[in-house]
Design a protein that fits this description.
Bound molecules: ligand PBG
Cofactor: dipyrromethane
Number of domains: 3
Number of helices: 10
Subunit structure: Monomer.
Largest sheet: 5 strands, mixed
Keywords: Porphyrin biosynthesis, Transferase
Number of strands: 13
Function: Tetrapolymerization of the monopyrrole PBG into the hydroxymethylbilane pre-uroporphyrinogen in several discrete steps.
CATH topology of the largest domain: D-Maltodextrin-Binding Protein, domain 2
Radius of gyration: 20 Å
Helix content: 25-40%
Strand order of the largest sheet: 2-1-3-10-4
Family: Belongs to the HMBS family.
């Protein structure tokens, strides 16, 4: 393509870091690109994410894409609402970073080493429910702000620890401050955590092909599709207490050849009659090509176990 492709991004350090990796990959194909920073209401508000709602970070980018101000938008996949956006297509899902959550605690402490009563900051109902369910007597308090702001609260002694996505810390070069990478058995990440969605206009076929050929990863796309199908079927928003993780595992086919399969786990938090939080869990395996139905079936299993379908953000 002779025209320069404009790639839109949010202005946070995290967003700029992840967009520049995508821009570099597209440039390596010989295509000229330009990075355009778009300010979003999610960046300007300090209200809890559970109040300002799903899509705060992504809708301004999508508007810029639809209006033609930019040609490509790079999103953190887990921040995208589960409903598809008319006229837009996710043309590329690059290989995902480590999807796990990570603890950054004072004095290098791990979860098991934090004394009961320690205060952990997170704005995520999913992380809060799973932290409480560990039975370690940890207190959970809501926080917001970018990665730097959250981590400073630990350095300043305001909190004993915070939980963040390991992928975000990798992208801003702060992996060395993690005091424990949390095993998914203890905390399942948000659906699509650690993955990016590279979006363009559905009628912009040349750009769609360019992105598909430069950044798309089939295994990541299948994994993320299964995880997001769990969320969509539970009709939950990005701040709902739902975790899902699909690992791509190797299996032996009947003829002895090695095939890749998805191993999907899901968790949903529910409130018991006494007001305590209960975690419901389900797991399933299936073929990459059946990612969507695998996710939906797992969600149905969670619903059968008693997961409610939350009606809005923060439920
Ligand atoms: N909701 C905020 C958000 N959206 C994307 C990331 C970075 C990790 C990722 O891309 O999944 C984060 C920060 C976090 O959860 O710690």
């Amino acid at each position: 393509m002779t025209k320069t492709i404009r790639i839109g991004t949010r202005g946070s350090g995290l967003a700029l870091a992840q967009t520049s990796t995508i821009a570099e990959r597209i440039e390596r194909s010989g295509q000229r690109v330009e990075i355009v920073t778009i300010s979003t209401p999610g960046d300007r508000s300090s209200a809890p994410i559970t109040e300002i709602g799903v899509g705060v970070f992504t809708s301004a980018l999508r508007e810029a894409l639809t209006s033609g101000e930019i040609d490509v938008a790079v999103h953190s996949y887990k921040d995208l609402p589960t409903t598809p956006e008319p006229g837009l297509v996710i043309a590329g899902v690059p290989e995902r970073e480590d999807p796990r959550d990570a603890l950054i605690a004072r004095d290098g402490l791990s979860l098991g080493e934090l004394p009961p009563g320690s205060v952990i900051g997170t704005g995520s109902p999913r992380r809060a429910a799973q932290l409480r369910a560990l039975g370690l007597g940890l207190e959970v308090t809501g926080i917001r702000g970018n990665i730097d702001t959250r981590m400073r609260k630990v350095a300043d002694g305001e909190l004993d620890g915070v939980v963040l996505a390991r992928a975000g810390l990798a992208r801003v070069g702060r992996l060395d401050e993690i005091t424990e990478t949390i095993d998914p058995i203890q905390m399942l990440p948000a659906p699509a955590q650690g993955a990016l969605a590279v979006e363009c206009r559905a009628d912009d076929v040349d750009v769609e092909h360019l992105i598909a050929s430069t950044v798309d990863n089939k295994a990541t796309r299948a994994a993320v599709t299964a995880e997001r199908a769990v969320l969509a079927r539970l009709e939950a928003g990005c701040s709902a207490p739902v975790g899902a993780l699909a690992d791509v595992v190797e299996d032996l086919a009947d003829d002895g050849s090695v095939v890749e399969r998805l191993s999907l786990r899901g968790v949903a938090a529910t409130e018991t009659e006494s007001g305590a939080v209960d975690l419901l869990r389900a797991s399933a395996t299936g073929e990459l090509a059946d990612a969507e139905s695998l996710g939906r079936e797992l969600a149905v299993e969670l619903l059968d176990l008693g997961a409610s379908a939350p009606s809005g953000p923060g439920a």
